[in-house]
Input
Amino acid sequence: MGRVLMIGAGGVATVAAFKIAQNADVFSEFMIASRRKEKCDAIVKAIGNPNIKTAQVDADDVEQLKALFNDYKPEMVINLALPYQDLTIMDACLACGVNYLDTANYEPKDEAHFEYSWQWAYKDRFEKAGLTAILGCGFDPGVSGVYTAYAAKHHFDEIQYLDIVDCNAGNHHKSFATNFNPEINIREITQKGLYYKDGKWIETEPLEIHKPLTYPNIGPRESYLMHHEELESLVKNYPSIRQARFWMTFGQEYLTYLRVIQGIGMASIKPINYNGMEIVPLQFLKAVLPNPQDLGANYEGETSIGCRIRGMKDGKEQTYYVYNNCKHQDAYKETGMQGVSYTTGVPAMIGAMMFFKGLWKRPGVWNVEDFDPDPFMEQLNKQGLPWHEIFNGDLEL
Ligand code: NDP
Output
Protein backbone atom coordinates (compact mmCIF):
# COMPACT_ATOMS: atom_id res chain seq x y z
CA MET A 1 0.00 0.00 0.00
CA GLY A 2 2.71 2.53 0.93
CA ARG A 3 6.34 3.26 0.17
CA VAL A 4 8.05 4.80 3.19
CA LEU A 5 11.54 6.12 3.84
CA MET A 6 12.72 6.46 7.45
CA ILE A 7 15.68 8.72 8.24
CA GLY A 8 17.74 7.94 11.35
CA ALA A 9 18.90 4.67 12.87
CA GLY A 10 18.89 5.38 16.61
CA GLY A 11 16.72 3.99 19.41
CA VAL A 12 13.43 5.52 18.26
CA ALA A 13 14.08 4.58 14.62
CA THR A 14 14.84 0.97 15.59
CA VAL A 15 11.45 0.64 17.32
CA ALA A 16 9.62 2.33 14.43
CA ALA A 17 11.37 -0.05 11.99
CA PHE A 18 10.19 -3.13 13.93
CA LYS A 19 6.65 -1.76 13.94
CA ILE A 20 6.68 -0.83 10.25
CA ALA A 21 7.89 -4.36 9.45
CA GLN A 22 5.06 -5.81 11.58
CA ASN A 23 2.50 -3.83 9.56
CA ALA A 24 3.54 -4.86 6.07
CA ASP A 25 -0.08 -4.69 4.85
CA VAL A 26 0.20 -0.89 5.20
CA PHE A 27 3.91 -0.37 4.51
CA SER A 28 4.62 -2.45 1.43
CA GLU A 29 8.04 -0.89 0.63
CA PHE A 30 10.45 0.29 3.29
CA MET A 31 13.89 1.94 3.27
CA ILE A 32 16.01 3.08 6.24
CA ALA A 33 18.61 5.79 5.57
CA SER A 34 20.96 7.41 8.07
CA ARG A 35 24.36 9.04 8.48
CA ARG A 36 25.94 5.60 8.81
CA LYS A 37 24.57 2.85 6.58
CA GLU A 38 25.95 0.11 8.84
CA LYS A 39 23.51 1.17 11.58
CA CYS A 40 20.62 0.79 9.12
CA ASP A 41 21.92 -2.64 8.09
CA ALA A 42 22.10 -3.66 11.78
CA ILE A 43 18.40 -2.81 12.21
CA VAL A 44 17.49 -4.85 9.13
CA LYS A 45 19.51 -7.78 10.52
CA ALA A 46 17.76 -7.51 13.91
CA ILE A 47 14.35 -7.54 12.21
CA GLY A 48 15.42 -10.37 9.91
CA ASN A 49 13.70 -9.05 6.77
CA PRO A 50 16.18 -8.68 3.90
CA ASN A 51 13.56 -6.90 1.75
CA ILE A 52 14.05 -3.69 3.76
CA LYS A 53 16.42 -1.42 1.81
CA THR A 54 19.10 0.77 3.40
CA ALA A 55 21.08 3.83 2.33
CA GLN A 56 23.59 6.40 3.57
CA VAL A 57 22.50 10.04 3.69
CA ASP A 58 23.61 13.21 5.42
CA ALA A 59 20.29 14.79 6.28
CA ASP A 60 21.91 18.21 6.84
CA ASP A 61 22.48 18.30 3.06
CA VAL A 62 19.34 19.05 1.00
CA GLU A 63 21.00 17.98 -2.26
CA GLN A 64 21.88 14.52 -0.87
CA LEU A 65 18.32 14.16 0.43
CA LYS A 66 16.85 15.16 -2.94
CA ALA A 67 19.04 12.64 -4.77
CA LEU A 68 17.88 9.88 -2.39
CA PHE A 69 14.19 10.86 -2.61
CA ASN A 70 14.29 11.05 -6.41
CA ASP A 71 15.94 7.65 -6.53
CA TYR A 72 13.73 5.79 -4.00
CA LYS A 73 10.54 7.79 -4.64
CA PRO A 74 8.90 7.40 -1.21
CA GLU A 75 5.37 8.66 -0.58
CA MET A 76 6.31 9.67 2.96
CA VAL A 77 9.48 10.36 4.91
CA ILE A 78 9.49 9.57 8.64
CA ASN A 79 12.12 11.82 10.16
CA LEU A 80 13.66 10.08 13.19
CA ALA A 81 17.03 11.78 12.97
CA LEU A 82 17.53 14.85 15.18
CA PRO A 83 15.50 18.09 15.42
CA TYR A 84 18.39 19.90 13.66
CA GLN A 85 17.47 18.13 10.41
CA ASP A 86 13.73 18.96 10.35
CA LEU A 87 13.97 21.90 7.94
CA THR A 88 16.42 20.37 5.47
CA ILE A 89 14.23 17.27 5.26
CA MET A 90 11.08 19.38 4.82
CA ASP A 91 12.84 21.37 2.06
CA ALA A 92 13.77 18.16 0.24
CA CYS A 93 10.22 16.83 0.66
CA LEU A 94 8.83 19.97 -1.00
CA ALA A 95 11.36 19.75 -3.83
CA CYS A 96 10.55 16.10 -4.55
CA GLY A 97 6.81 15.91 -3.74
CA VAL A 98 7.12 13.74 -0.61
CA ASN A 99 4.92 13.81 2.53
CA TYR A 100 6.56 14.30 5.94
CA LEU A 101 6.28 13.18 9.59
CA ASP A 102 8.53 13.84 12.61
CA THR A 103 8.58 13.49 16.42
CA ALA A 104 10.36 16.65 17.59
CA ASN A 105 10.21 20.28 16.49
CA TYR A 106 13.08 22.12 14.85
CA GLU A 107 15.97 23.39 16.95
CA PRO A 108 18.93 25.36 15.60
CA LYS A 109 22.23 23.68 16.53
CA ASP A 110 23.75 26.85 17.98
CA GLU A 111 20.80 27.87 20.16
CA ALA A 112 19.00 25.62 22.68
CA HIS A 113 15.58 26.87 21.75
CA PHE A 114 12.61 25.06 20.25
CA GLU A 115 9.32 26.36 18.89
CA TYR A 116 6.95 25.52 16.05
CA SER A 117 7.21 28.82 14.16
CA TRP A 118 9.98 27.58 11.85
CA GLN A 119 7.98 24.56 10.73
CA TRP A 120 4.56 26.22 10.74
CA ALA A 121 6.07 28.71 8.25
CA TYR A 122 6.05 25.82 5.69
CA LYS A 123 2.25 25.48 5.86
CA ASP A 124 1.41 27.36 2.64
CA ARG A 125 4.11 25.63 0.64
CA PHE A 126 2.97 22.14 1.74
CA GLU A 127 -0.63 23.10 1.06
CA LYS A 128 0.13 24.40 -2.44
CA ALA A 129 2.18 21.28 -3.21
CA GLY A 130 -0.72 19.06 -2.05
CA LEU A 131 1.54 17.46 0.58
CA THR A 132 0.85 16.50 4.21
CA ALA A 133 3.32 17.24 7.01
CA ILE A 134 2.55 15.77 10.45
CA LEU A 135 4.60 17.34 13.25
CA GLY A 136 5.47 15.91 16.65
CA CYS A 137 4.14 12.36 16.37
CA GLY A 138 6.01 10.56 19.19
CA PHE A 139 4.56 10.18 22.69
CA ASP A 140 5.06 13.66 24.06
CA PRO A 141 4.66 15.45 21.73
CA GLY A 142 2.39 13.04 19.90
CA VAL A 143 0.14 10.81 21.95
CA SER A 144 -0.20 13.68 24.48
CA GLY A 145 -1.89 15.75 21.71
CA VAL A 146 -4.00 12.80 20.54
CA TYR A 147 -5.16 12.17 24.14
CA THR A 148 -6.14 15.85 24.43
CA ALA A 149 -8.02 15.75 21.12
CA TYR A 150 -9.80 12.56 22.23
CA ALA A 151 -10.78 14.17 25.55
CA ALA A 152 -12.09 17.26 23.74
CA LYS A 153 -14.05 15.16 21.25
CA HIS A 154 -15.64 12.70 23.68
CA HIS A 155 -15.51 13.95 27.26
CA PHE A 156 -15.52 17.76 27.45
CA ASP A 157 -17.42 20.72 26.05
CA GLU A 158 -14.56 22.90 27.26
CA ILE A 159 -11.07 21.88 28.37
CA GLN A 160 -9.84 24.43 30.94
CA TYR A 161 -6.82 22.90 32.68
CA LEU A 162 -4.33 20.57 31.01
CA ASP A 163 -1.38 18.90 32.74
CA ILE A 164 0.77 16.48 30.76
CA VAL A 165 2.58 14.17 33.19
CA ASP A 166 5.58 12.09 32.17
CA CYS A 167 7.11 9.61 34.62
CA ASN A 168 9.97 7.23 33.97
CA ALA A 169 10.15 4.95 36.99
CA GLY A 170 12.72 2.69 35.37
CA ASN A 171 16.22 1.79 36.53
CA HIS A 172 18.92 1.11 33.90
CA HIS A 173 21.64 0.47 36.53
CA LYS A 174 24.02 3.07 35.04
CA SER A 175 25.39 5.99 37.09
CA PHE A 176 24.06 8.49 34.58
CA ALA A 177 22.42 8.04 31.19
CA THR A 178 19.72 9.76 29.18
CA ASN A 179 16.83 7.85 27.60
CA PHE A 180 17.04 9.49 24.22
CA ASN A 181 19.72 11.42 22.38
CA PRO A 182 21.83 12.89 25.26
CA GLU A 183 22.56 16.17 23.47
CA ILE A 184 18.90 16.94 22.73
CA ASN A 185 17.78 15.67 26.15
CA ILE A 186 20.24 17.77 28.20
CA ARG A 187 19.51 20.89 26.10
CA GLU A 188 15.80 20.41 26.86
CA ILE A 189 16.11 19.80 30.60
CA THR A 190 18.54 22.62 31.35
CA GLN A 191 16.29 25.24 29.68
CA LYS A 192 14.08 27.61 31.63
CA GLY A 193 10.61 26.27 32.46
CA LEU A 194 7.56 27.72 30.75
CA TYR A 195 3.83 27.28 31.23
CA TYR A 196 0.64 28.89 30.01
CA LYS A 197 -1.83 30.70 32.27
CA ASP A 198 -4.73 32.99 31.37
CA GLY A 199 -3.44 33.88 27.91
CA LYS A 200 0.20 34.44 28.96
CA TRP A 201 3.37 32.39 28.99
CA ILE A 202 5.10 32.35 32.38
CA GLU A 203 8.81 31.60 32.60
CA THR A 204 10.45 29.84 35.56
CA GLU A 205 14.03 28.99 36.42
CA PRO A 206 15.03 25.50 35.17
CA LEU A 207 13.19 22.83 37.21
CA GLU A 208 12.23 25.49 39.80
CA ILE A 209 8.64 24.28 40.34
CA HIS A 210 8.17 20.70 41.48
CA LYS A 211 5.82 18.53 43.50
CA PRO A 212 5.13 14.84 44.09
CA LEU A 213 2.52 13.33 41.79
CA THR A 214 1.13 9.81 42.04
CA TYR A 215 1.48 7.61 38.95
CA PRO A 216 -0.61 4.45 38.39
CA ASN A 217 1.17 1.23 39.39
CA ILE A 218 4.22 3.32 40.42
CA GLY A 219 3.28 5.61 43.30
CA PRO A 220 4.42 9.13 44.15
CA ARG A 221 7.37 10.61 42.23
CA GLU A 222 8.78 14.14 42.39
CA SER A 223 7.66 15.84 39.16
CA TYR A 224 9.25 18.98 37.68
CA LEU A 225 7.55 21.64 35.58
CA MET A 226 9.31 22.03 32.22
CA HIS A 227 8.66 23.70 28.91
CA HIS A 228 7.48 21.18 26.33
CA GLU A 229 6.71 21.85 22.71
CA GLU A 230 3.16 20.46 22.47
CA LEU A 231 1.89 23.10 24.90
CA GLU A 232 2.43 25.69 22.14
CA SER A 233 0.10 24.01 19.64
CA LEU A 234 -2.45 22.74 22.19
CA VAL A 235 -3.24 26.15 23.69
CA LYS A 236 -3.62 27.50 20.15
CA ASN A 237 -5.92 24.67 19.05
CA TYR A 238 -7.98 24.63 22.29
CA PRO A 239 -8.49 28.32 23.17
CA SER A 240 -10.68 27.43 26.17
CA ILE A 241 -7.53 26.22 27.99
CA ARG A 242 -6.76 28.55 30.90
CA GLN A 243 -3.69 26.73 32.13
CA ALA A 244 -1.38 24.23 30.42
CA ARG A 245 1.68 22.68 32.02
CA PHE A 246 4.10 19.81 31.46
CA TRP A 247 5.64 17.76 34.28
CA MET A 248 8.47 15.21 34.15
CA THR A 249 9.93 13.07 36.95
CA PHE A 250 13.65 13.01 37.80
CA GLY A 251 15.49 11.13 40.54
CA GLN A 252 17.78 12.98 42.96
CA GLU A 253 20.85 11.13 41.65
CA TYR A 254 20.07 12.22 38.07
CA LEU A 255 19.64 15.84 39.14
CA THR A 256 22.92 15.79 41.07
CA TYR A 257 24.78 14.55 38.00
CA LEU A 258 23.05 17.17 35.87
CA ARG A 259 24.05 19.94 38.28
CA VAL A 260 27.68 18.81 38.20
CA ILE A 261 27.66 18.50 34.39
CA GLN A 262 26.39 22.08 34.15
CA GLY A 263 28.63 23.34 36.91
CA ILE A 264 31.79 22.12 35.18
CA GLY A 265 30.70 23.46 31.80
CA MET A 266 30.06 20.13 30.07
CA ALA A 267 26.47 21.09 29.12
CA SER A 268 27.71 24.08 27.12
CA ILE A 269 26.89 24.23 23.40
CA LYS A 270 29.51 26.96 22.72
CA PRO A 271 32.46 25.54 20.76
CA ILE A 272 35.83 25.63 22.54
CA ASN A 273 39.33 25.13 21.21
CA TYR A 274 41.02 21.99 22.54
CA ASN A 275 44.56 21.29 21.33
CA GLY A 276 43.87 23.10 18.05
CA MET A 277 40.57 21.32 17.53
CA GLU A 278 37.14 22.89 17.88
CA ILE A 279 34.82 20.83 20.08
CA VAL A 280 31.38 21.44 21.59
CA PRO A 281 31.47 20.25 25.26
CA LEU A 282 27.92 18.81 25.16
CA GLN A 283 28.68 16.89 21.95
CA PHE A 284 31.84 15.49 23.55
CA LEU A 285 29.81 14.50 26.64
CA LYS A 286 27.34 12.67 24.37
CA ALA A 287 30.24 10.66 22.97
CA VAL A 288 31.27 9.38 26.41
CA LEU A 289 27.80 8.79 27.90
CA PRO A 290 26.02 5.44 27.45
CA ASN A 291 24.17 5.16 24.14
CA PRO A 292 20.39 5.17 24.92
CA GLN A 293 20.11 2.30 22.41
CA ASP A 294 22.19 0.07 24.70
CA LEU A 295 20.21 0.58 27.92
CA GLY A 296 17.45 -1.95 27.27
CA ALA A 297 18.96 -5.23 28.50
CA ASN A 298 19.17 -4.25 32.20
CA TYR A 299 16.32 -1.75 32.31
CA GLU A 300 13.68 -2.54 34.93
CA GLY A 301 10.48 -0.72 35.77
CA GLU A 302 8.08 1.23 33.61
CA THR A 303 7.09 4.60 32.18
CA SER A 304 3.72 6.26 32.77
CA ILE A 305 2.72 9.19 30.55
CA GLY A 306 -0.67 10.82 30.39
CA CYS A 307 -2.89 13.88 30.37
CA ARG A 308 -4.72 15.14 33.45
CA ILE A 309 -7.57 17.36 32.31
CA ARG A 310 -10.18 19.48 34.09
CA GLY A 311 -13.05 21.19 32.30
CA MET A 312 -16.78 21.38 31.72
CA LYS A 313 -19.20 18.79 30.38
CA ASP A 314 -22.98 19.39 30.23
CA GLY A 315 -22.64 22.36 32.59
CA LYS A 316 -20.72 20.37 35.23
CA GLU A 317 -17.02 20.36 36.09
CA GLN A 318 -15.27 17.06 35.59
CA THR A 319 -11.77 15.60 35.59
CA TYR A 320 -10.25 13.03 33.26
CA TYR A 321 -6.91 11.22 33.35
CA VAL A 322 -5.85 9.20 30.31
CA TYR A 323 -2.50 7.41 30.36
CA ASN A 324 -0.31 4.56 29.21
CA ASN A 325 2.16 2.54 31.27
CA CYS A 326 4.96 0.83 29.35
CA LYS A 327 7.35 -1.72 30.88
CA HIS A 328 10.98 -1.37 29.73
CA GLN A 329 11.47 -5.14 29.64
CA ASP A 330 8.42 -5.71 27.43
CA ALA A 331 9.77 -3.10 24.98
CA TYR A 332 13.20 -4.72 25.09
CA LYS A 333 11.86 -8.23 24.45
CA GLU A 334 9.97 -7.04 21.39
CA THR A 335 12.47 -4.62 19.81
CA GLY A 336 15.77 -4.73 21.75
CA MET A 337 15.18 -1.10 22.85
CA GLN A 338 14.05 0.46 26.16
CA GLY A 339 10.64 1.91 26.92
CA VAL A 340 11.34 5.55 26.04
CA SER A 341 12.40 4.63 22.49
CA TYR A 342 9.39 2.31 22.31
CA THR A 343 6.83 4.90 23.43
CA THR A 344 8.17 7.27 20.74
CA GLY A 345 8.73 4.84 17.84
CA VAL A 346 5.30 3.17 18.03
CA PRO A 347 3.29 6.44 17.64
CA ALA A 348 5.59 7.54 14.80
CA MET A 349 4.64 4.36 12.93
CA ILE A 350 0.94 4.83 13.78
CA GLY A 351 1.02 8.42 12.45
CA ALA A 352 2.46 7.17 9.17
CA MET A 353 -0.15 4.40 9.11
CA MET A 354 -2.90 7.03 9.54
CA PHE A 355 -1.47 8.85 6.51
CA PHE A 356 -1.24 5.76 4.30
CA LYS A 357 -4.78 4.72 5.25
CA GLY A 358 -5.94 8.16 4.08
CA LEU A 359 -7.22 9.07 7.57
CA TRP A 360 -4.64 11.76 8.33
CA LYS A 361 -4.03 13.10 4.85
CA ARG A 362 -4.56 16.82 4.34
CA PRO A 363 -2.30 19.25 2.46
CA GLY A 364 -0.51 21.60 4.86
CA VAL A 365 1.57 21.39 8.04
CA TRP A 366 -0.31 19.98 11.03
CA ASN A 367 0.06 18.99 14.64
CA VAL A 368 -1.44 15.65 15.64
CA GLU A 369 -4.47 17.17 17.40
CA ASP A 370 -5.57 18.66 14.07
CA PHE A 371 -6.65 15.16 12.97
CA ASP A 372 -9.33 12.71 14.15
CA PRO A 373 -7.92 11.01 17.29
CA ASP A 374 -10.20 7.95 17.18
CA PRO A 375 -8.41 5.70 14.66
CA PHE A 376 -5.04 6.58 16.25
CA MET A 377 -6.37 5.69 19.75
CA GLU A 378 -7.63 2.38 18.36
CA GLN A 379 -4.18 1.57 16.96
CA LEU A 380 -2.43 2.47 20.24
CA ASN A 381 -4.32 -0.43 21.84
CA LYS A 382 -3.38 -2.78 19.01
CA GLN A 383 0.28 -1.78 18.58
CA GLY A 384 1.56 -2.13 22.15
CA LEU A 385 0.64 1.12 23.94
CA PRO A 386 -2.79 0.47 25.53
CA TRP A 387 -4.39 3.38 27.34
CA HIS A 388 -6.54 3.67 30.45
CA GLU A 389 -8.98 6.27 31.73
CA ILE A 390 -9.91 7.58 35.19
CA PHE A 391 -12.99 9.79 35.42
CA ASN A 392 -13.45 12.32 38.21
CA GLY A 393 -10.44 11.14 40.22
CA ASP A 394 -8.16 13.49 42.18
CA LEU A 395 -5.77 15.04 39.62
CA GLU A 396 -3.48 16.37 42.42
CA LEU A 397 -3.02 19.50 40.30
P1 NDP B 1 19.52 8.92 18.41
O1 NDP B 1 20.61 9.88 18.60
O2 NDP B 1 19.63 7.55 19.01
O3 NDP B 1 19.22 8.71 16.84
C1 NDP B 1 19.31 9.72 15.90
C2 NDP B 1 19.67 9.09 14.59
O4 NDP B 1 19.76 10.10 13.58
C3 NDP B 1 21.04 8.41 14.64
O5 NDP B 1 20.98 7.19 13.95
C4 NDP B 1 21.94 9.41 13.93
O6 NDP B 1 23.04 8.86 13.27
C5 NDP B 1 20.98 9.97 12.89
N1 NDP B 1 21.46 11.27 12.43
C6 NDP B 1 21.89 12.32 13.17
N2 NDP B 1 22.27 13.32 12.37
C7 NDP B 1 22.09 12.89 11.09
C8 NDP B 1 22.31 13.47 9.84
N3 NDP B 1 22.81 14.70 9.70
N4 NDP B 1 22.00 12.75 8.73
C9 NDP B 1 21.50 11.50 8.85
N5 NDP B 1 21.27 10.89 10.01
C10 NDP B 1 21.55 11.59 11.14
O7 NDP B 1 18.17 9.63 18.91
P2 NDP B 1 16.81 8.96 19.38
O8 NDP B 1 16.49 7.77 18.53
O9 NDP B 1 16.85 8.81 20.84
O10 NDP B 1 15.78 10.14 19.04
C11 NDP B 1 15.36 10.37 17.70
C12 NDP B 1 14.41 11.55 17.65
O11 NDP B 1 13.27 11.30 18.45
C13 NDP B 1 15.01 12.86 18.19
O12 NDP B 1 14.63 13.90 17.33
C14 NDP B 1 14.35 13.04 19.52
O13 NDP B 1 14.25 14.39 19.89
C15 NDP B 1 12.98 12.45 19.24
N6 NDP B 1 12.27 12.02 20.46
C16 NDP B 1 10.92 12.35 20.54
C17 NDP B 1 10.19 11.95 21.64
C18 NDP B 1 8.73 12.19 21.70
O14 NDP B 1 8.04 11.60 22.55
N7 NDP B 1 8.13 12.98 20.83
C19 NDP B 1 10.82 11.22 22.78
C20 NDP B 1 12.20 10.83 22.52
C21 NDP B 1 12.88 11.26 21.40
P3 NDP B 1 24.25 8.13 14.11
O15 NDP B 1 23.65 6.83 14.51
O16 NDP B 1 25.30 8.02 13.10
O17 NDP B 1 24.56 9.05 15.26
About this structure: The radius of gyration is 20 Å. The mean pLDDT is 97. Residues 7-13, 34-36, 39, 57-60, 80-83, 85, 103-104, 138-142, 180-181, 184, 292-293, 340, 344 surround NDP (CB under 6 Å). The chain has 14 helices and 18 strands.
